[in-house]
Sequence to fold (467 residues):
Amino acid sequence: MSTNLLFLLLIGALVGAASGYLGSFMVLKRMSLVGDALSHVALPGIAIALTFGINPMLGALLALVIATFGIWYLAEHSEIYPEALVGVFFTASLSLGLLLTPEPELLEALFGNIDKIAPADGLMVIVGVVITFIATTLISKKLLLGVVSEDLAKSQKIDVSKINLVYLLLVALVVALGVKFLGTLLTGAMVIIPAVTAKNIAKNIKTFHLFSILFGVLSSAIGILIAKYFGISSGPAVVLTAVVFFIASYFFRK
Amino acid sequence: MKRMENILKCSDLKVKFGGHTIFDGLSFEVKRDDTLAVVGPNGSGKTVLFRCLLGLIPFEGKVEWAPDVKIGYVPQKLSVPGDIPLTVREFLRFKETNDEKIGTVMSKVGFKAKAKHRHHDLRVLNTRLGKLSGGEMQRVLMAYALMDGPNVLLLDEPTAGVDIAGEKTFYALFEDLKANTDLTIIFISHDVEVVEKYADSVLKIIHEHHHVH
Fold:
């Protein structure tokens, strides 16, 4: 196995692990589509980054952070359902991204290309994943209590709205880390599928988180190997691997 | 002397939602160790009052708790979907990580382990929160509220959606707490019999005027 493939597997596994972990909360919060919609927001960011010759991951992250603040602010301060907001953000940014992205890079931006991952990207992924794991673990109890009952959480002086914002920003970070090898159309899937797979077979919250991480890692690693072996796009290979795990888990569900 | 002290004083409370006044000029006091029932027709704002007492919503007027107050809150009919894999033990660990302590509080609310000092054997601890019956859920929420030793309990219609057997267990626990602890209990109820049996005082919220008797 070449060093390059090992490097790609490591980066893929790390993004898979972080997506799985964050996704496990998203599924509980009944916000699965938020991750999906957020990933589309990355496209205009990538387009602008490509135009100015900076790292697309940074462009994606910037667009995602702006969109996250936007969605969070409107959800907190207006009567519109977050779902409707997400729908608007998603279609608007996808349209904008399609117009702005230079044609040769469009397919890559949409579906990912692992051959374009450079050592600098790897470093960003490692730092980003470490931040994600530490921050998510720190807020996990508060997030979960908010899922059980917002009133109960608030009665314990937990600022539910602030915790939600931190959580959404972490999702934005993980989506940005994943766009290069999964593409903007498919990164969101890795936040959802490993988590719903894990939910089918988990006995409790602890095993739920662990299985989410495990399925994230396995889907990424196996998907990348398949993509390399058959010379196909990494995004669809990883997502379809995750889907196979999901179907299998359905027969073992608790 | 301690009994005469107020643990809570509310003056001139007013809450408005979108131009609609829920209540206006609500004033009352609660003494330590007292059990106060909050009654009133649907929509009179009983739960809204609790939300003011807990500081969850903006309001006009004053809510003054004694400086040493520690509130345990049992919300009304918590519906947790059964597919959420959070077990009772994991839920209670949000507040208390010592399993021994969890077992002690759980036995206080009526979940008994088969053998003494074998609290970790309690089967209910490994049950998903969303799979509990209405009565079990209320007692688990009560355990959660009691876990960190509060001196005030706020119970929002604790037996709504609970079957008769569950209701009986719950009120036996209520009676036990009232007799054997210094807890101040404020509870919302629709049940006249329950109010007459357990409340030392009653706060009736009616539109225009409210009074304690």
